[in-house]
Amino acid sequence: MNTWSKIAEIQPLATTILTNSLEKGRISHAYLLQGERGTGKERIALVMAMSLFCENKQGIEPCNTCNNCKRILSGNHPDVHWIEPEGLSISKEQVRHLQKEFAFSGMESNQKVYVIKHADRMTVNAANSLLKFLEEPSKQTTAMMLTENSGSILPTIRSRCQVIDLKPLNPLQFQKQLISEGMKEQDALLMSALTNNLDDAFQLSEDEWFVEARTLVLQLIEMLTTRPENIYLYLHSKWLTHFKERKDHERGLDLLLLSLRDVLYYHIGNEGKMTVFKPNDTLLEKTSMRFSQNHLSKLLDLIIQAKRKLSQNVQPTLVMEQLVLQMKR
């Protein structure tokens, strides 16, 4: 059920701001929702649209069952428009098309809503076109712009929006949510360290590629622990055949970072926080004997540096070659 009361459980402050606007009839012509992936941006935009169009709402809560609510949920309401990047960016043509749509009266009322996902990915021309649109707002037009990277939004656009910051999800709360939805506790610990999106967590936990990725990461650690002289060969014969795209390497480094953090937890007697290793794993014991806490800290720093290089568009194979050579020293 998509309701404000449900959203309030994870984003209480944002819910208070938006529901007060609805109750007082003082809805801003443009909102900028900024927060990490999984913090509820799309869901908030969806419930906001439903609250504006619902035929049977209780106060400000949408019913989720009327014709308007169902069409908004399915993405088929004629007066609710969703825009997202076509390829890597949102083009000027997409914004122009939106402007043409909004030049006409609403199909069923004068109320209109548009939602721009990944608003930070607008091209400069698209952003400038949108700016002109925002400068002449219609009283019954509401814009919802969603972003994980608010720093890339033009200051002139930000200044015309009510900015709402969404807080990061509490990992412990997310773990409980995953377990209540049927995920095993050990899997929930790992997934909550990798994502804060419920659907992503379940998809990842059931993904065969990810299961194999976890195995390869543990094999890399075993190689580093017992046969470091062969780690470069392992990288090319095993790792690079599985981790091919940049996003794959990022996921692999995340798992490697978590794995070595588990070893550090084992050192300090905090096994309850381990995510990748399972309790009583013989490799865990071997690795803890092989590497001191100080050495583990250095290895973790090397992995963080490698992640930074990937984000700076350095060629992934080169990043991994440098990393394993540094780690085996």
TrEMBL record:
Question: Which residue numbers delimit the DNA polymerase III delta subunit C-terminal domain?
Answer: 241-327
| E.C. number | 2.7.7.7
* Keywords, in A-Z order: DNA replication, DNA-directed DNA polymerase, Nucleotidyltransferase, Transferase
Top-level EC class: transferase
**Which reaction equation describes what this protein catalyses?**
DNA(n) + a 2'-deoxyribonucleoside 5'-triphosphate = DNA(n+1) + diphosphate
Q: Which GO terms describe its molecular function?
A: DNA-directed DNA polymerase activity
Matches recorded under NCBIfam families? holB (TIGR00678), PRK08058.1 (NF005972)
Name the chain's protein. Answer: DNA polymerase III subunit delta'
